[in-house]
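Supplementary notes for students who missed Thursday's class. We covered one full example, reproduced here. Read the sequence, then the structure, then the short commentary at the end.
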Amino acid sequence: MSESIPQEFWQGIEQFNSGQFYACHDTLEALWIEASEPEKSFYQGILQIAVALYHLGNRNWRGAVILLGEGSNRLRRYPSTYSGIDVDELLSQSAALLTTLQQTGADKIIADGLSENQALLLPKIVLTND
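Structure (token representation):
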């Protein structure tokens, strides 16, 4: 892990947690393009989850399910906490949302959207002290 975490990373995390998923994607993608491993895959995992939540907001069930899975799979390679992020908590919340989406199904999400489906708890990124 790099000694210094770029300020843009924290901006992306704030955007994620405030529901600005498209902006989060743009912020983290700029970092991802320039990064080397292991940070490159870490940024990509978070931005894939952000894009999944963006898709969900647009009633794109399939895009949400695919990217939640891909982002989670990428982040599973990292320790419980990494770069000041509680990775296990993000994975747990993402898995719960993925399960709910799979059980609810595309038709209900597309018909009802997010506002009327209170069962959908969107993940938040929890910061750690490491």
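Commentary. The chain is about 65% helix and 5% strand. Helices lie at 7-17, 21-34, 39-57, 61-75, 87-104, 106-112. If anything here is unclear, bring it to office hours.
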